[in-house]
Design goal:
Blueprint (H helix, E strand, L loop, with lengths): L2 E7 L1 H5 L9 H13 L4 E5 L5 H13 L4 E7 L2 H10 L6 E8 L2 H8 L3 H16 L4 E7 L6 H13 L4 E6 L6 H14 L7 E6 L6 H10 L5 E4 L13 H10 L1 H4 L1 E3 L6 H12 L20 H9 L27 H10 L7 H17 L5 H9 L10 E9 L7 E8 L2 E8 L3 H13 L4 E9 L8 E9 L2 E9 L2 H17 L10
Parallel strand pairs: 1-2, 1-8, 1-9, 2-3, 3-4, 4-5, 5-6, 6-7, 7-8
Antiparallel strand pairs: 10-11, 11-12, 13-14, 14-15
Helix pairs in contact: 2-3, 2-12, 3-4, 6-7, 8-9, 12-16, 17-18
Bound molecules: zinc ion.
Zinc ion (ZN) binds next to loops.
C-alpha cells in the first residue's frame, strides 16, 4: 500500500493574508465548502486570535465542515491557543497550528528573544495546546533559515510534548529543491523522535520554486504533508499551488508512489471561486487551471491530439474539471434546478431568504442572457449584493449617458444602512462618472489601486466581472461585482469594496 500524502490547504489563512485578498466570513465559508468537496485533508480556516472577524470565520467553518480537519493558526502563547481551541469547538476534527520564529534574524529582530526563551515558549505552547486538542501542528517560522542544531533541539522538544505534525516553512521563498529536501531529510535523521510526527512542507514562491521545493521535501525529505493554496494565492509571489502539486503527484505517481485523496474534478471550480472572490485573476498560461492550459493552438499539436490525445496531453482536461462552457441553466429553469446546481457547485446558501434572493437575481440575469453558465452562477452568488441587507451599502439603480465628444454623466441610486440615496457626477468615461457619483455621496477618500474587467464566459454577451481594489488608512480591500452591463458591475464592485472598508477589524500579523 502506498503512503498517503496529506493535503493541507491554507487559502483561507496564508492566502487570504495577501494584500487585497481579504474575504468576508460568508466568502470563506463558501470556499471552505468547496475545499471539502475537493476532499482536502486539512483546511486552515484562519488565525482565530488575530481579530473577532477571523475568530467568527474559523468558528463557522468548524461548525459546518464535516469531512476535512479544520485548523486554526495560533502564535505560541496560551491566550492565542485558547482562542483557537474555542473557535474550533464545533469541529468534527480539529487541529491547532502553533508557530514561533526560530531563525537568528527573526528571534533577534522580531521577537527580541534569546534562543533559550524561544525553545521554552515553543515547548510550553505545545504542552498547553495538547491539553485542549489532540492534533497539534508546530511550525518553526523561517525554519529553513534557522540554525539546524537549534532547530533539532526545538523540534525534538515539541514532539516530546505531543506535536503530531512538524512543518518546516520556507517563509521567505529562499530554498532550492535539492537543498530543501536534504534539509528536511537531515532533520528527520538527526532528531531521535522524528518518527513520532508527520513532517510537512510549507513553501513560498518568491523564486518560482514553491511547487518544486515542496515536491523535493516529499521525495528527498520524506515529508507526508504539503501546505498549499488554490491558485498559489498568497503574499508576494504566493504559496505552493494546490492544483499544480496535486496534479504532479497524481500524473507522476510512477515516480512519487503516493496517494492523494483530492477529488481533482473540482479543481477548476475551486480555482474560479477563489479568483472571483479575491479578484486575483488566473494567468491564461497557468498550469492546470489557466484558460490555455489544455488549449492546443499549434497545428501540429492539434493534429496529434486529434489522432491520439496522449501525443501531447499528459493530463485530461475533464479530470481537473474543465467541462466549462456547458450550458447549465436558462430562463425556464426553476428554483429547484437552480438550488441543485448551486449545491453541485459547492455553494450552500445559508437561509431560504438567501436562496430566494439569489434565485431572483438569476431570473433577472436569465431574462437578459439566454445561456447561463456555471461561471455566471458563481459570479452571481459571489456578488455581495445577494446578502445586501446585512451590508452598509447596496446597489439599487444606475443611469448614465455617454456620447462621442461629450463628457459622460452618471446618476446612481444606492442604499446606505437601508436608506436610499443618490449621487450624480461626470467623469472621463461612464465607469469613472458612476464611481465618482458614489464617491460624491460617500466621501470615503479611498485610493483606487486596481480596476479590472473580465468577461466571465468569453464573449461580449457574457457578464462582465469587475474587481476594484481600494486602499485607505493602510488597509487594502477588494470588491467584486458582476453584471452584463460593465458600468453596473463596476458600481457594484465599488460598493462592495466600500462595505469591506467599512467592516474593518484590526488584525494581528501572522507568519508568512
Ligand atoms: Zn506562509
Amino acid at each position: 500500500m502506498a503512503d498517503k500524502l496529506i493535503i493541507f490547504d491554507t487559502t483561507l489563512r496564508d492566502g487570504e493574508q495577501s494584500p487585497g485578498a481579504s474575504m468576508t466570513k460568508d466568502e470563506k465559508l463558501r470556499i471552505a465548502r468547496q475545499l471539502e468537496r475537493l476532499k482536502v485533508d486539512v483546511i486552515e480556516a484562519g488565525f482565530a486570535a488575530s481579530s473577532n472577524g477571523d475568530f467568527e470565520a474559523v468558528q463557522s467553518i468548524a461548525n459546518v465542515i464535516k469531512d476535512s480537519t479544520v485548523c486554526s493558526l495560533s502564535r505560541a502563547n496560551d491566550r492565542d491557543i485558547a482562542r483557537a481551541a474555542e473557535a474550533l469547538k464545533g469541529a468534527n476534527s480539529a487541529r491547532i497550528h502553533t508557530f514561533i520564529a526560530t531563525s537568528p534574524l527573526h528571534m533577534e529582530k522580531k521577537l527580541r528573544m534569546t534562543p533559550e526563551q524561544v525553545l521554552e515558549q515553543a515547548t510550553q505552547a505545545v504542552r498547553f495546546a495538547r491539553n485542549l486538542v489532540g492534533d497539534i501542528e508546530f511550525s518553526p517560522e523561517d525554519g529553513y533559515r534557522s540554525d539546524p542544531d537549534f532547530l533539532c533541539r526545538v523540534l525534538e522538544a515539541v514532539i516530546r510534548e505531543g506535536a503530531t505534525t512538524i512543518n518546516v516553512p520556507d517563509t521567505v521563498g529562499y530554498a532550492i529543491p535539492e537543498l530543501y529536501g536534504n534539509f528536511i531529510k537531515s532533520l528527520r535523521e538527526r532528531i531521535p523522535n522524528s518518527d513520532k510526527a508527520i513532517w510537512s512542507v510549507h513553501c513560498h514562491n518568491d523564486l518560482g520554486m514553491a511547487v518544486a521545493n515542496s515536491l523535493a521535501g516529499v521525495k528527498i525529505g520524506g515529508a507526508r504533508q504539503i501546505e498549499c493554496t488554490i491558485n498559489g494565492l498568497g503574499e508576494r509571489a504566493g504559496n505552493c499551488s494546490l492544483e499544480e502539486v496535486v496534479m504532479a503527484v497524481k500524473t507522476r505517481r510512477d515516480y512519487f508512489g503516493l496517494d492523494v485523496g483530492i477529488d481533482t474534478q473540482h479543481i477548476v471550480a475551486a480555482s474560479r471561486m477563489v479568483s472571483q472572490t479575491t479578484g486575483f485573476v488566473v494567468q491564461p498560461n497557468k498550469a492546470v487551471v489557466g484558460a490555455n492550459a489544455f488549449a492546443h493552438a499549434s497545428g501540429i499539436h492539434q493534429d496529434g491530439v486529434l489522432k491520439a490525445r496522449d501525443t501531447y496531453e499528459i493530463m485530461r482536461a475533464e479530470d481537473v474539471g474543465w467541462t466549462a462552457n456547458k450550458i447549465v441553466l436558462g430562463k425556464l429553469s426553476g428554483r429547484n434546478a437552480f438550488k441543485q446546481r448551486l449545491q453541485e457547485l459547492g455553494v450552500a446558501l445559508e437561509s431560504e431568504g438567501e436562496i430566494n434572493a439569489a434565485f431572483a437575481k438569476f431570473k433577472e440575469l436569465a431574462d437578459r442572457k439566454s445561456e447561463i453558465f456555471d461561471e455566471d452562477i458563481l459570479a452571481l452568488v459571489s456578488d455581495e449584493s445577494v446578502s445586501s441587507e446585512k451590508e452598509r451599502y447596496g446597489f439599487v439603480s444606475l443611469s448614465q449617458h455617454s456620447e462621442t465628444g461629450e463628457r459622460p454623466q452618471a446618476r446612481i441610486v444606492f442604499t446606505v444602512a437601508g436608506k436610499e440615496v443618490q449621487g450624480t457626477s461626470e467623469g472621463n468615461g461612464p465607469v469613472d462618472a458612476s464611481l465618482k457619483a458614489i464617491e460624491a455621496h460617500v466621501q470615503s477618500g479611498a485610493e483606487m489601486v486596481l480596476y479590472s474587467v473580465n468577461a466571465i464566459s468569453g464573449s461580449t454577451e457574457s457578464q462582465g466581472e469587475v474587481t476594484v481594489r481600494l486602499q485607505s488608512a493602510g488597509r487594502v480591500v477588494n470588491g467584486v461585482g458582476a453584471d452584463p452591463d460593465i458600468v453596473v458591475a463596476s458600481a457594484k464592485a465599488y460598493l462592495s469594496a466600500l462595505n469591506k472598508l467599512h467592516s474593518t477589524a484590526e488584525r494581528v500579523a501572522a507568519q508568512g
